[in-house]
């Protein structure tokens, strides 16, 4: 089966949102490379958009991990009182320009579609042409931590709010869709629902998962590791751990496929 995949020139890759858990996407891409599998088109939301852009840009696995390890998530110099949100998302543009100097979708090596939420009209919108960095930042700008990003006169925030698993652009152009969902929802014990924070997180997770459920089932191959649920979405210390979980989970799945 992996031989058939490696010769397939029309593979689409969908990368969900999920914060630091999204490092598992990089692990999957590493496994894909080792098994000779390459996606033609990529779609992503939030952290999935960032990983997808780096993959579409031709960056190495080491470059991808370096990007997330060195780009500051919180920096007191980025605090703002002039905008909605605690961090001024525009301050991150210079970090992105080091990786995407041409700042355009057209400069990428693969077709990329990313989704962001128009906070003014309440719609999820896809971006795939023109300016790259601002839509990328918008797709990952989780409120209220990060301020909205203005693109063409409209304000945008995290794509995962409206579309956390943006498979739609691939349905008409790809014959095989690989999905990576790091917004895991598994069974919890009572002890994991003892306070308001835990309850709110669980409800939010269930809402996001419910909105993605049909699209997850539409994938020809889906990667979801339950081990990721124990990693905090903003826990930067777990970058390597999430990456390793994603890599090992994908390798096991590809090994099984190679025997079919």
From TrEMBL:
<feature type="active site" description="Nucleophile">
    <location>
        <position position="46"/>
    </location>
</feature>
<dbReference type="InterPro" id="IPR050301">
    <property type="entry name" value="NTE"/>
</dbReference>
<keyword id="KW-0443">Lipid metabolism</keyword>
<feature type="short sequence motif" description="DGA/G">
    <location>
        <begin position="158"/>
        <end position="160"/>
    </location>
</feature>
<dbReference type="InterPro" id="IPR002641">
    <property type="entry name" value="PNPLA_dom"/>
</dbReference>
<protein>
    <submittedName>
        <fullName>Patatin</fullName>
    </submittedName>
</protein>
<dbReference type="GO" id="GO:0016042">
    <property type="term" value="P:lipid catabolic process"/>
</dbReference>
<keyword id="KW-0378">Hydrolase</keyword>
<feature type="domain" description="PNPLA">
    <location>
        <begin position="13"/>
        <end position="171"/>
    </location>
</feature>
<dbReference type="GO" id="GO:0016787">
    <property type="term" value="F:hydrolase activity"/>
</dbReference>
<feature type="short sequence motif" description="GXGXXG">
    <location>
        <begin position="17"/>
        <end position="22"/>
    </location>
</feature>
<dbReference type="Pfam" id="PF01734">
    <property type="entry name" value="Patatin"/>
</dbReference>
<keyword id="KW-0442">Lipid degradation</keyword>
<feature type="active site" description="Proton acceptor">
    <location>
        <position position="158"/>
    </location>
</feature>
<dbReference type="InterPro" id="IPR016035">
    <property type="entry name" value="Acyl_Trfase/lysoPLipase"/>
</dbReference>
<feature type="short sequence motif" description="GXSXG">
    <location>
        <begin position="44"/>
        <end position="48"/>
    </location>
</feature>
């Amino acid at each position: 089966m992996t031989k058939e995949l490696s010769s397939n020139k029309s593979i689409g890759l969908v990368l969900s949102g999920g914060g630091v858990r999204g490092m598992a996407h990089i692990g999957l891409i590493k496994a894909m490379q080792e098994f000779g599998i390459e996606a033609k088109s990529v779609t992503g939301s939030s952290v999935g958009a960032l990983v997808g852009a780096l993959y579409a840009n031709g960056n190495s696995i080491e470059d991808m991990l370096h990007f997330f390890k060195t780009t500051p998530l919180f920096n007191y110099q980025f605090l703002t009182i002039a905008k909605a949100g605690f961090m001024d998302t525009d301050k991150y543009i210079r970090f992105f320009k080091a990786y995407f100097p041409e700042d355009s979708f057209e400069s990428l090596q693969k077709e990329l579609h990313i989704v962001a939420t128009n906070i003014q009209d309440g719609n999820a919108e896809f971006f795939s042409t023109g300016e790259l960095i601002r839509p990328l930042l918008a797709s990952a700008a989780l409120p209220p931590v990060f301020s909205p990003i203005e693109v063409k006169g409209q304000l945008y925030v995290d794509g995962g709010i409206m579309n956390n698993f943006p498979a739609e652009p691939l349905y008409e152009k790809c014959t095989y869709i690989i999905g990576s969902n790091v917004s895991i929802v598994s069974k919890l014990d009572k002890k994991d629902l003892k306070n308001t924070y835990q309850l709110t997180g669980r409800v939010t997770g269930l809402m996001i998962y419910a909105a993605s459920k049909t699209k997850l089932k539409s994938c020809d191959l889906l990667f979801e590791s339950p081990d990721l649920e124990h990693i905090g979405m903003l826990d930067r210390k777990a970058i390597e751990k999430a990456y390793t979980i994603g890599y090992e989970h994908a390798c096991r799945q590809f090994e099984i496929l190679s025997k079919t």
